[in-house]
Protein 1
Amino acid sequence: MRSLIRVVVIAAAGLAAISAFAQERQVYDLPQGAHPHDVAPAPDGSVWYTAQHQGALGILDPETGKVRHVPLGEGSSPHGVIQGPDGAAWITDGGLNAIVRFDPKTEKTTVWALPQDVAYANLNTGAFDHDGIFWFTGQNGIYGRLDPATGDMKVFEAPEGRGPYGIAATPGGDVYFVSLAGSYLAKIDREGGGAEVIEPPTKNQGARRVWSDSQGRLWISEWNSGQVSMYDPRDRSWNAWSVPGDDPRVYAVYVDERDVAWLSDFGGNAIHAFDPRTEKFTTFPKSQEGANVRQINGRKGEVWLPESGADRLVVIRTDQTE
């Protein structure tokens, strides 16, 4: 394996609110061919990632750089991973067409296959509501819910068919997803299962991922338009900002504990931090060309970036003294 850990001190110029706390970037090399798609901080301080091309859940120890893989089964191709309210890793596995739970204490994996009458769904991402129900998307035109307590699963056809990708829960427990092919935001009726389409003002913008901030506003990465947009459910208003660069292709969005929105840009091979207080961007280069950050996640003081094209995890550590 290549050198495991590299630390680079970085200065984020041009944005006082962010430059005060962006301190260093640390790079962790992973097994060649892992293709880390999504990442999630684990409760014990380690970091989980989906090793999509190797059918495994990866576990990184940030202190030592040690990495190990937990195989998820024959045919596995995991896409999304999040930490559940039970402290376990919850995985949307497109290869298995199933939801997978990994218990870090027992190291047991539990698999819930989609119903037999549901064809290959191209499972993408998941989120928990405040009742402990796991909601998930499949880009081939479905979204669904799983009750971990009973194993009951329901799958729903998405409005306008193909496209559901990113999904997020707000602090109040509401669940929204976005459709890449449909270019819309949708709010799920958690009782009945229906979905209300909320049309963004920019047509055909390619809504890819979505994240809620502390106020329940939905931040959306727009793949086709190169924008980040924000929808406020309180007054049903929209705002949108163009990401810097000549040809931005905004893939991932994550909102940190300070309500700063972090974005990955395939067009500029960059990460952008957007501060809504000043409406300004700060740009951080990726670790190499073609790094391809498809998702961003984090915890207090840390922003984690899985570089699927470089077989690396990168963390931007932030100063919490502000």
Note: The helical segments are 16-19.
Protein 2
Amino acid sequence: MDEFMGKLKALADETRFKVIQLLLTHDYCVGALAKQLNISEAAVSQHLQILRKAGVVKGEKRGYFTHYVVDREILKKVAEDIIKEASRMPQEKNKCQKHKVGKKQCCKML
């Protein structure tokens, strides 16, 4: 679950999600990503580092530059895990039952 959450956290940032969107259409080096996103190369490098640690992108050295690509299988696995979680059925015994405590409302699990 920690690995799954790490991937979700890496993808949750708007800029990193834009990086993923760009890399799904074409492989890019840091400089090209910086131009596409209109941010500094240092900022792109930081975002790529987080995405690499999460296993979502991979770098491939080509001459002087490293080009980045999305690991599509990892991205598909994250999507499958989200679908799996969304498909879970609630358990009857875990229904919430509202009751009053003083003047406040709270929930009590059965």
Note: The mean pLDDT is 88.
